[in-house]
Amino acid sequence: MALDLKTTIHTENDCKTLVITDITKPRSSANINGWGGQNASPDLAKINLVLTIIYPIIDGEDLIPIPISFPLTEDTYVESTVGGVYSNDFWEFDGPNRIDDFIFKIDMRDFLPMLNSYLASNLIVDSSGSPIQLNEEIFIDNVYQVKINITNADNNEIINEFDFCFANTCTIQEEVDLMYSSIDVFCEDCDRADVEAALLAESLLEELKNSCENGEA
Q1: pLDDT, tens digit (0-9, with 9 covering 90-100), for 189-204
Q2: Phi and psi for 106 in degrees, rounded to 5?
């Protein structure tokens, strides 16, 4: 059997922070595709891990995917403990040098300079030929891809490759909730425009939520 990495992905902090959490758990008779045993080890002395977030930029009708990678190896791992939690840059772990149950968390204020550096170094321009530089304060609503590669620490051969799809609906979900909270459902003579706008927004929300299931990432 082989490792089947499982994650949860969401945004928090008013859409400003992206969080990716490993929920795979150790290999056992009830979880034969978990970490360890005959599968990939969670020990950084044995494996390297590269997490890549593919950030979607919309330029007119064009989609420009921007890959930003975060390599994690025994050399890049600098252990620090705060409140009993092991942490390293954007990562949190349950134990030293063990990456199972990892939590990867990055704020847009840290992610934005990486995006703009990639755009500048790769000379990426918009449809008018002007260099693209972003000023996002939040992770925009869109469909994101997250790639996680696990390689052998000795020879860098790929052990496992995983692709995850995340439909971020943080902003539109807040807007839909606000729309419905302002509607007087008991008013029979009120203008229906607010209701129709809320229903349209909810339809767009559901379409975005289902984007990963429909293979749009």
Answers
A1: 666 666 566 555 666 6
A2: -135, 135
